[in-house]
Amino acid sequence: MSLETAQRLAWNLACTLKVIIILIETPEGYQAMPSDDYDGDVEQVVREYDVFAA
């Protein structure tokens, strides 16, 4: 998935699910997932989307 598409998806998921979503870079492209589900390398995290952050 392209970076732009992944960013839009991640923000939409964060707003809809009211959870922190992270955007990670993989060899296949970018992926969005809840931060609680990610147990991989911190170096892969591109951005964190937190709707509760000030």
Structure summary:
The chain has one domain. It is built from one helix and three strands. The protein has one helix at residues 3-17; strands spanning 21-26, 29-34, 45-49.
Task: Report on the architecture of this protein.
- This protein has 54 residues and is an alpha+beta fold.
- It has one domain (3-49).
- The protein contains one helix and three strands.
- The protein has a three-stranded antiparallel sheet with strand order 2-1-3, with helices on one face.
- It is globular, with a radius of gyration of 10 Å.
- It starts with a helix and ends in a 5-residue tail after the last strand.
- The mean pLDDT is 93.
Q: Report the principal-axis shape.
A: globular
- Proportion of residues in extended strands: 25-35%
Q: Can you count the helices?
A: 1
Total beta-strand segments:
3
Features:
1 helix; three-stranded antiparallel beta sheet; alpha+beta; 3 strands; 54 residues
Q: Layout of SSEs?
A:
Blueprint: H1 3-17, E1 21-26, E2 29-34, E3 45-49
Antiparallel strand pairs: 1-2, 1-3
